[in-house]
Design goal:
Elements: H1 2-33, H2 36-39, H3 46-53, H4 68-71, H5 76-88, H6 94-103, H7 107-111, H8 124-136, H9 141-144
Helix pairs in contact: 1-5
Amino acid sequence: MAESERILKGLPYLGVGIILGVALFSGLAYLRRSESSVCLICHEMREPAESFSASVHGRQEEGVVPKCTDCHAYSAWDAGINLFRHLSGHFSPYEAREARARLGVRDEGCRKCHSDLLSPSMTPQARTDHRLYFRLKSGNCLSCHDEEGLFHRRPGR
């Protein structure tokens, strides 16, 4: 009888844990797929947002402006860890966050819009560089396309 009482006493905790787990997972999934406005909640994102608005990608004449998550591919887990670190005051130094943010920029994000990398309208040098990129499968888009004004400035720079 004592064991069944212990199990019954633990059921409310299990229920609360399941509800919190579902809520947390749903919230993180929302953050992962959300608009850029969710990313801008944090004060340290204001400078990148302002410089992005003035960048080539931010002021698209065609009206197709990428969201933060189109370029920065964070998992729901990463978003949750970053939120926890920020709220608990255990946020890593700026340089470490910047390195993680750059690692999160995947070529797939660029290639959603820039699919024809061997277009005849490109310069011969650009076509040569892109052929090399495809052949060697090394480097990434940012290793060549990281110039000022193309994306956003890094905070504090």
